[in-house]
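FIELD: query
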Amino acid sequence: MSVSPFNIFVGETIGTFFLTSSIIYMTNFENGGQATNILGLIVGFFIAVNITRKISGANLNPAVTLLFFFKDNEKNNNKNSCDYTRVLIYMGAQFLGAFFAVLLGLLLYNNLIVLSINQNSNPFSAFTMEYLGSCLFYLIILVQCKHLY
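FIELD: result
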């Protein structure tokens, strides 16, 4: 089933907006740090993927877009089959969706979000959480969209 570039753009923009919003709104910014509601975040990921999986394949992240791009390119085993325009559509939509989610977050939080490095944070712990969160995100996409790939 072929999906139009417009539908991909709209689906990815809405899905990435929802995904980024769930990250922003499920995070509590207090006392110079942040605490995340993991269950809310997982539910937000699941909903964002479910909304967009039939529209655009639910990439919702430039890393996922590149993953599937290189996977398709390897599967076709033909460098001339690369569709760079499609990758740019996905990534442009993802950027736009994330931008609007952050803009809305800044407006709703009334500029209470301050990005700074917490002196008490452990870089290894932050890396581990980011890595595990990304793995969980990719797993949700692969399980929900296995029929597409």
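FIELD: remark
The chain has a mean pLDDT of 78.
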